[in-house]
Amino acid sequence: MPRTKAGASAARVRFAAGSGPARGGIRWAVAGLVLCVPLLSVVALAVGSVAIPAPTVVEILVHRITGLGDPDGWTLVQDGIVWDLRLPRVLLALLVGAALSVVGVVTQALVRNPLADPYLLGTSSGAALGAVASMVLGVGVFGGISAGFAGFAGALAALLVIYAFVTLTGEFSPTRLLLAGVVVGAGLSGITNYLVFQAEDPGTTNSALFWLLGSLAGASWDQLGLPALGLVTGFAYLMSRARQLNAILLGDETSASVGVDPQRLRVTLFVVAALLTGLAVALSGAIGFVGLIVPHIARLLVGNDHRRLLPMAALLGGLFLLTVDIACRTVMSPQELPVGVATSVIGAPLFLYLMSRREVRLGGA
């Protein structure tokens, strides 16, 4: 019996998505990465300018979560360092790394370009402008809101400007959206640099520059609740569109033949990706290369099926950023190296290495 066009297209989607390592190997890889999360988190909680033994870290966590254990086994200072200072930072590193990596996967799929990353959407520049403006111009101008909230508001404003320009000046397309994002982002970056340059207070200038270079130092419990909910919700939504992302990799005609509206899908997922990027940048500043490098490493491990690729990228991204943050806190201790500097130094040669092995690619592209 001859195949229908839709049936053949669906088979192509399943074939492209199913290419990759054997499932047994994927399960072992995922299990190993999941096990690394608590192990690496304990290391991150133990090391720093004040070293705390790993068994003590575990005892503090168990006591804080369950109430079990003897609090006389550690000091109040150690308890405060682990629970109030380092644990929020560990969780922030996992959240931001996962968010940037997942957005990188989605952006590369939507534009079918292995060089795409979250910062091409332009929202990161809007987030940077909002946060730096709140620092330099003073809290009185912004009604006392935090730099993080101002950064997210700036990301939303940049997204609205870019989307309005693309939709009002012609037909929506991924290429026009990315070009508009790059141009608007460059303009906003220029304004941000001007604000830093004309700041009168050296302390404010240093804070703004440190934020622009990327930092997780400002993590605290009261700043994690809503952002964590937003990042988890965004990831859950992207997971619900994993099959449609598989289809769009094979082109608009193929995806339309299996019931996917490529134009509507791109608009929706671009908005979600931009909001996640803005939220991540508002929390941690500009941290580059995570959303560019991690998706390619994840594809090497699990293939192109976004049902496996998105969770793997989230795991790898969180672990990668947490590892880099540990290094940034210990290499120059007691001074701290900005995380964005380290990710760029590590990411550039790593990406060149992947290119030299011809492993920078997209399934179906």
Describe the structure.
This protein is an all-alpha fold and 365 residues long. Helix content is 73%, strand content 0%. It is built from 15 helices and no strands. The protein has helices spanning 5-18, 23-46, 54-66, 76-111, 123-136, 147-168, 174-198, 202-212, 225-240, 242-248, 252-257, 262-284, 290-302, 306-330, 339-356. The protein is globular, with a radius of gyration of 22 Å. Mean pLDDT is 84; it is low at 10-16 and 140-144.
Q: Note the gap between the termini.
A: 30 Å
Low-confidence stretches: 10-16, 140-144
Biggest sheet layout:
none
Average of pLDDT: 84
The tally of beta strands, per DSSP, is: 0
Estimate what percentage of residues fall within beta strands.
Answer: under 5%
Q: Structural class per helix/strand content?
A: mainly alpha
SSE string, helix = H, strand = E?
HHHHHHHHHHHHHHH
Number of helices: 15
Fraction of residues in H or I helices: over 70%
Sum up the overall morphology in one term. Answer: globular
Integer-rounded radius of gyration: 22 Å
